[in-house]
Amino acid sequence: MLTAKDAVARILGNRERTISSPAKAFAPSNIALCKYWGKRDQNLNLPNNSSISVSLGSLGTTTKISKNSNDYDEVFLDGVHQADASSFAKRTLDFVDLIRGDFPVNVRIETENNIPTAAGLASSASGFAALLLALNDFFSLNLSKRELSELARMGSGSATRSFYDGFAVWHRGEKVDGSDSFAEQIDCNWPDFRIGVLQLSTKEKPVSSRNGMNNTVEHSILYQSWNEQSVRDYDLIMEAIQKQDFTQLGQAAENNSMAMHATMIACKPMILYWQPESLTAMQQVQALRQQGTEVYFTMDAGPNVKLIFLKESEEEIKEVFPTLQIIAPFVD
Ligand code: PMV
User: Fold this and answer.
1) How far is residue 168's CA from residue 185's CA, in Å, rounded to a whole number?
2) pLDDT at residue 14 is higher than 90
3) How far apart are the CA of 75 and the centre of ligand 1, in A?
4) How far apart, in Å, are the Cα atoms of 182 and each of 130, 259, 300?
5) pTM of the prediction?
6) pLDDT for residue 204
7) How many angstroms separate the alpha carbon of residue 30 from the centre of ligand 1?
8) How far apart are CA 48 and CA 171, in angstroms?
9) How far apart are alpha carbons 229 and 255 in whole angstroms?
């Protein structure tokens, strides 16, 4: 089995590194409409299925990397120093090591999220994408978008899709070295498309998405059917984007998310990311639809609920969800 180091060596080749300090970059978070849930390769983070997402525009992560005069690395998250043993510092520095190789430099990494970290709002997607963009500048690597998306995958699968505005697709790929598993933008301009983020909890999720998906693949009797469904959902969602058919997109995205959560609920022991407030929000969405307002929801590995709707429904939806943070991915 190939290691992440092998994959990085393949992509970077013998590219020369020249330090440009400090380097700062922003990457948006993204929400999957057709979800990635399950890996075909743990080391390279290769997915069992292709996925489709929409960017959250200005919500995401800004990361600054500077040369550290001390002979050790330091990691700060939202201004707070992270102990080396913390999972955040470890994941960050493991990724830095992959790109740094044996280049002799110590770094200070400062990460700021304008979305809660690890609350199912995909902060790892924007986190690894921003980290890699900053590393790209810091080491003057000149990576293409495709190379960026392939490399970011080694930090977090969903990060592959965080280099693009609007809709993006992450191809499952077939090759064992992962060279055909990358993300690209879907050509679409849909100014009326809206995503609403309903932040119900900022608490750190109890089960990481990595553990959640690995346990589901191993211990859920529903996993195989999910995998088959995700192939059909992918086609439905891709077609809906191309036709700008909102009903088809919303129905397929909501169903895809519920089916993913069903696989987790059927796990032994069960994995349940929902809170009572999540369920209330899902029922409010259903009620709105029954009253004629077209709105759908999607949920990831956390209790927060994201709404999908069109501009024309904004006012009715705000009445039910006054704290909703609305994002216009094609306008903002
Ligand atoms: O990239 P990860 O390991 O954070 O996993 C993301 C999993 C989901 O958010 C639930 C789905 C997705 O495609 O983003």
Assistant:
1) 4
2) no
3) 23
4) 17, 24, 21
5) 0.96
6) 67
7) 9
8) 10
9) 10
Residue closest by Cα to atom 10 of ligand 1: 300
- Over the stretch 56-73, which tens digit does the pLDDT of each residue have? 999 999 999 999 999 999
Q: What angle do CA 197, 182, 6 make, to 5 degrees?
A: 125
Which pLDDT belongs to residue 201? 75
Pairing of strands 107-113, 74-77: parallel
The answer to whether 122 touches 79, Cβ cutoff 8 Å, is no
Q: Which of 31, 36, 50 to mutate to test the pocket of ligand 1 (most atoms within 8 A of CB)?
A: 36
Q: Copy the structure tokens of residue 13.
A: 């080749």
Question: How far apart are alpha carbons 256 and 76 in whole angstroms?
Answer: 36
Q: Note the pLDDT tens digit of each residue in 241-252.
A: 999 999 999 999
Contact 163, 52 (CB under 8 A): no
Q: Which of 37, 39, 113, 117 to mutate to test the pocket of ligand 1 (most atoms within 8 A of CB)?
A: 37
Cα dihedral: 38, 40, 43, 45 (round 10): -50
Helix residue ranges per DSSP H, 188-245? 209-219, 223-243
Average pLDDT over residues 189-214: 87
| The ligand 1 atom nearest the CA atom of 51 | 13
Pocket test for ligand 1, best of 29, 35, 305 (most atoms within 8 A of CB): 35
Q: Which pLDDT belongs to residue 305?
A: 95
pLDDT above 90 coverage of the chain, percent: 89
Position 206 scores a pLDDT of 77
Please identify, by atom number, the ligand 1 atom nearest to the C-alpha of residue 210. 3
Query: Which residues, 6+ apart, have CB-to-CB distance to 54 below 8 Å?
Result: 30, 31, 33, 166, 167, 168, 193, 195, 329
